[in-house]
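Please produce the structure of this protein holding pyridoxal-5'-phosphate.
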Amino acid sequence: MNPLIYLDNNATTRVAPEVKEAMLPFFDELWGNPSSMHNFGGQVMRYVEEAREKIAALINADPSEIVFTSCGTESNNAAIYGVAEILGDGAKIITSRVEHPAVLGPCRHFRQHGYDVVELPVDGVGQLDLAALREALYGGPSLVSLMWANNETGTIFPISEIAEIVKSVGGVLHTDAVQAVGKLPIDVQKIPVDLLSLSGHKLYAPKGIGVLYVRRGTRLQTFLIGGHQENGRRGGTENVPYIVGLGKAAELAMAGIAEEEHRVAALRDKLEAGLLATCPDSRVNGDRRNRLPNTLNISFEYIEGEAILYHMSDLGICAASGSACSSGSLEPSHVIRAMGVPFTAVHGSIRFSLSRYTTDADIDYVLKHLPAIIAKLRAMSPFVN
Ligand code: PLP
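Below is the modeled complex.
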């Protein structure tokens, strides 16, 4: 039987055993509603607040600025809707062409409702043009939503400079940090973003739990109207086991970021160097100088990413491709297209995303098998003569 070589951690991570362990009591003896007046339920609130403190510590926020949501998508929607509603129609929303659909979708929704929405371009490595950001900020009140790091290429935006530019003209800054939290040190005291989204399942907590960081004083319309939970900022009974799990994951991430930056980056670099050396006509997509430590996006020219994924999957290797299957045709991803990757390379892009559980042996296994897959597919390619 083939081993499982899981290199698709930007899609989702496994739940850390410590996280699972921390969650279990909240399915058994501690199942009460944290809002209850009686002690049985009420005692649970203490654990929710402990988790809030741990998550706040991970990004150096105040616990009162942490709002639990159901996922990264909800956090992004809550931030964009919550600010856009307050700014009113006619306001400007500035984002980039390479954002996750959970940001691009809400921004485009507001464009249809009369908002002036600007999608900033990126260059060949997926980096933002800061001059274009400055220019876009001329005029009325603006909401800016720019990601901390890209999920497909790992390219890290210059968020510190972005924050300086946006704050200097009084704009509101939201960042989708779903891929950055747990992989990079984040300090909202040093980088004055107003709103920040994160998602549990990208940092070894379960799927279905997220956070929106809301800087104190930020005006935000309530997105999910209901009970008084989360200080009236997000109705709905708290998902206690998952909140506790995310708290544990944040604690582990605090201790593990240095490892992510060194050991995981070294494995990623070994994979990158090995593939570039053994697979002719391959090229890295993304900003190699400013990139998430766990991410490698590489194009193998003249072949289809899906065919590569299929062959790798047969050997137990899990990765992702830069194409999305829509209406029967394989469309290259909007991120790869926005970067102007050459035609011969857009379809053959593969994303490898490593984790704290990735081993040297995993990388050796990929390096042993993938070059042969590429050579075989190239031999069949109608684009190679
Ligand atoms: N933003 C980015 C950059 C992501 O990579 C993802 C998930 O892939 C999301 C948002 C959405 O997060 P969730 O799956 O928790 O809704």
